[in-house]
Each structure stands twice: as structure tokens, then as C-alpha cells.
Amino acid sequence: MKCALNMYANYIAIVLTVSIFTAVNPVDLRCHRTLKDLPTQCHYNETVFSCVNANETNVCLLRLVPSTVTHVVFSGNILPDLPAYLFGNDTCRNLPNLKYLDLSNNQVEHIDNGAFQCLPNLEGLVLNNNIWNVSTDTSVFAHSSSLKNLSLSNAMMTRSGNVSHVTWLNWVFQNSDLQNLEEVHLERNGFWSLSESQAFPCKLPSLRKLYLSHNFISIPKINISCLEYLEELHLENNSIGYLRQPFMTALDKLNKLKGIYLQKNPFYCDCHLVDAGFYEWLQKNTTKVINKDHLMCLRPFQSKNVNHSILSLNTTNFTCTKPINFDSKLQASYIALGVVLCIIGILTIVILFLNRHRLRNRCKKVKESCSSAMAAREHHYSAVNV
Description:
It contains 7 helices and 17 strands. It is an alpha/beta fold. It has an 11-stranded mixed β-sheet with strand order 1-2-3-5-7-8-11-12-13-14-16, with no helix packed on it. A two-stranded parallel ribbon has the order 4-6.
């Protein structure tokens, strides 16, 4: 009995010792690392934990982050998979002080839907320059209600099978709790279109800044009618020819909108730009449209408007060349050809009729010549046989 009690007491002592040691100097027992073993590229103090370009492949270093830290910068490493409870050892480790997390340039492909749990006060999350396969992680931000700034620039693969990532991203936002998000960066993700049917903006009621520049969007149809607090909309460096009336009407209804960024788009400066109301809308919104004098005409290529600012031109400059009616021209060609052939036929008949006697005599001579030749040939064969 006394031996059993001693063993139990020793066990309790060991547990207490380990608990005290891990509280002072947290250790991930699976990777056997401590804060003293950090690479030379990693540094930390009471509020900041930084590990940049260390080529780390083990996520366990994040589990060593002290609970007092407010900013974590862990970029330039190799972390294809971000597991659940990113800062814990398969269990929730609450980091109430953490407000900013930078995981950019880590070659991230998969993010577990529970990766960002237990971060109740996280306000800024950066996932730029990764290769995230969004289609498998559609509930990543379900526990991120405190987020105010989300950066996903060049963060995603451009395709997932035959489905565009903009569709998967719509599902991500639909499954998220981002009521407090004020700024979202979606630049350089290869988006071709944003449809009104993709209602993800309405899941971000507090959004103030939306960045969609450096994509391939030609006709922006994003549903912005529910973004009553939107202040900035960035659509630079896309493929926009001109804005359509429904989208311009939606922009006009956003009372807090202060900046619309449209520069470096290949604007199509012909009659359609004026007919769509885009020229008139630009004139009315000169204070909202940032760098309005730098909106340049780049198409149609043969137009005299190329390399001129849209607002430097008059409405009379925006003309459309009449399309060539190839069907009518082809029909006229057929008619002309038919007339020529008829004339040639008639002339041929007239010439033959006028020279009928000469032709008849010539045919008679040809016939007589053929008859003489045949008779001579028969005589020759008869002589040979004899």
C-alpha cells in the first residue's frame, strides 16, 4: 500500500513538473521543439512572433507561440496543409491576445475548416501568394467573426477541375461568419466574371473596402446593393470595356461610396460606350471616380480614340463603323455574273447564226476528208491481206 502511494505521489510530481515547465516554455512534444530551438530567421518577444523565409515545413513552431503575442508573421515557409487547431496540439489552445496573423507565401494548398478556431480576437488574416484549393475548404472562416481585414491576393489556384474558384469562394463566404469584416483583398486570382447570382457580398454587411484589381473581369455584375457601408471599390487592371447601366445604378445608390478605381482597363471607345450611359455617368461622378483623367481608350484598335482619355473626347468622337452586309454584296455579285453569262451566251448564238453557211461547208469538207481517209485505210488493209 505504501509503495503504491509513493508511486502515485511520484506520478503527481512528474505531471506538475511538466505542467510548470510547459507553462513557462511551451513545447510541442511531437516535434520536440522549444522556443530556444527556433531557426535564426525566427524571432519573438512578448507581443510579436516572426518566422520569415526559414523554409520550415513543420507547423509545430506555431504551437510554440506565447499566449501574450498579438502579431504572428509566419511567411516564406513550406506548409501545404494547415491542420485544425493551428496553434494547439490537436486541441483548442486559446490565444485571446492574437490580433494579426500573416501566413503568406507558404505554398498552402489545404486549410482545415477548424484551422482558425480558438482565436477569438483575430482581426487581420493574410493568406496572400499561396495555392489554396478552395473547393475542399468551404467552412474555413466559420469561426472568424472577429475578422476585420482578410487578404486573399493571389491566394488561390485559378481552377479546380472545371469549376472556377470564384464559385467555390462564394460558398466559402456563404458558410462564414464575417459580420465584422471591413476589408477584403481578392486581387490576382484569375477571376473572369462575378455574377449577380453570387451573393457573397451580402454575407459581408460591414464591408468598407473591396479589392478586385488585377483579374480578368470584363463585365462586373457583382451584387453590391447590400453593401451600404462600402467606401472603396477597386477594379483596376481588369478587362472592362465600359460599365453597364444596372451596375452604375447600383453604384449611385451607395451613399458612403467615396472611391471607384477603374484605371488601366482596356476601355472600348465607340458608340456603345455612350449608348450604355458610361460617358455621361463618368461626367456626373468625377469626384467618386479616382484618377478619372487616366481612363484611356484602348479599343477598337483602328479607332482614332486610342490612347486618348475618355473625358477628353466629345460624344461625337464615339462612333461605330457600319458593318459590311456581306449577304447583299454576295447577292449582287451573283446577279452580275448571271447577266454576263447571259450576254456571252446570246453573243455566241448570234455569231453561230451569222456564220451558219461557212460552218456548214466546213463540216461538209471535214466529213468528206474523213470518208476519204477511211476508204484509203480499208484499201490498205485489203492489199496487205492479199
